Amino acid sequence: MSLPSDFLGRIILILQNYGGSLLRGAGNTLLIAIISTLVGCIIGLIVGIIQTIPVGRNDNIVKRAVLWIVKLILNIYVEVFRGTPMMVQAMFIYYGSALVFNINMDNMFAAFLIVSINTGAYMAETVRGGILSIDEGQTEGAKAIGMTHFQTMLHVILPQSIRNIMPQIGNNLIINIKDTCVLSVISVVELFFASKSVAGSYYIYFETFTITMIMYLIMTVFFSRLLRYVEKRMDGPKNYDLATSDTLAHTSGMYNFPGNNGGTRR
């Protein structure tokens, strides 16, 4: 079959014959990125909270020893997965698990696992920083009214920390949408893998990856705008007047009273 000689004609040919394959690849990319980011956030939240558990000299020696060991293991996990490329992690986990432990993972399951634990390592440091960014006076105030460490984290610290780290959560999602392309090394059929197959069919790489680039751009821009909208919603209203049943206590001066000329004043 003769290929069209013009750029637009080759683009149309690719979309007509392989548009479905590219869309399925993009669907797998989004599925892996979204689910793995959510799971990674949960992992990072747990690891970040454990890393910030205070340990004092007055604490039981067993508690101090256990926490030291747990924090050491979690620190090693964070440093290893933040300090090595995801592509290397994918090959190490996927092929290593089969070779050493005789565990033959499904490609998609391996993709979810790899991206989740990689995201969890980055989110752990983000959560830890978010928790430490909250003023210590709030923790002291919560403990002063009898809250335990768990209650303080759940009701006082975490709600503020999560709002502070929302931009980083969104950033991790955008990164995961793009970085799923490295999973092609373990034959996960995501957008980049599908694009390579399409390009190899006609040997027209420039047109194929032009389409691929536009598809990645559409996905990342859409989720960037969506997450920015969520951030604005989390900010709440700009007007922070007290909500009270007593109009005399309204900070905006809602109470009207007679003026000198029989009118009303605010």
Model description:
Belongs to the binding-protein-dependent transport system permease family. HisMQ subfamily. It is a multi-pass membrane protein. There is one protein chain. The chain is mainly alpha-helical. The chain has one domain: Orthogonal Bundle (MetI-like fold). 72% of the residues lie in helices and 2% in strands. Strands 1-2 form a two-stranded antiparallel sheet. Strand 1 and strand 2 form a beta hairpin. Helix 1 packs antiparallel against helix 7 and helix 1 packs across helix 8.
Q: Tell how many strands the DSSP assignment holds.
A: 2
Assign the CATH topology.
Answer: MetI-like fold
The main pleated sheet reads as:
2 strands, antiparallel
- CATH class group: Mainly Alpha
* Share of helix, binned: over 70%
Q: What is the mean pLDDT?
A: 86
Strand proportion? under 5%
Q: Assign the structural class, choosing from mainly alpha, mainly beta, alpha/beta, alpha+beta, or little secondary structure.
A: mainly alpha
Number of domains: 1
Query: How far apart are the termini?
Result: 81 Å
SSE string? HHHHHHHHEE
Overall shape: elongated
The number of helical runs is 8
Q: Which architecture does the CATH hierarchy give at level 2?
A: Orthogonal Bundle
Q: Considering the protein shown, what is the CATH homologous superfamily?
A: MetI-like
Biggest sheet, spatial arrangement of strands:
1-2
Cα-atom radius of gyration: 26 Å
Spans of at least 5 consecutive residues whose pLDDT stays below 50 are 248-255, 262-266
